[in-house]
Amino acid sequence: MFELTVTPRFYETDAFGHVNNTVVTGWFETGRAPLFQLFGGGSDPSALPLILARVEVDFVGQIYYGSDVLLRTGIEKIGNSSFVVAQQAWQNGKLVARGKAVQVYFEHDKQASAPIPDEFRQVLSEHQGELAETL
């Protein structure tokens, strides 16, 4: 599991005074950055052999400006050519959002998905497991 703390910025708030829902998908992408590093996408993002196939977010509480948000990221499932990333956002000890993203191992030169190589599969499995619903 990976953890990252983000600080909500004032411009991310909406007319209701809380963080706009569209912001959370961006935070979750930032929370997946350590996974991108595992696949060698740190210095050259165009070399990253992954594409995003699906993203979903459940908003379970309001997120407010003025308090940091803890992002938790883990691997839920590893398939043949894709894997499911589970994510959570916590503010002041409360779960405020949960989501999933499906990442596909992708050969850009062939414009096609491919089986996840064993070395990446092994590293992903080290981060596999359910995210607890409590801190």
UniProtKB/TrEMBL annotation:
<dbReference type="InterPro" id="IPR050563">
    <property type="entry name" value="4-hydroxybenzoyl-CoA_TE"/>
</dbReference>
<dbReference type="InterPro" id="IPR029069">
    <property type="entry name" value="HotDog_dom_sf"/>
</dbReference>
<comment type="similarity">
    <text>Belongs to the 4-hydroxybenzoyl-CoA thioesterase family.</text>
</comment>
<dbReference type="Pfam" id="PF13279">
    <property type="entry name" value="4HBT_2"/>
</dbReference>
<protein>
    <recommendedName>
        <fullName>Thioesterase domain-containing protein</fullName>
    </recommendedName>
</protein>
<keyword id="KW-0378">Hydrolase</keyword>
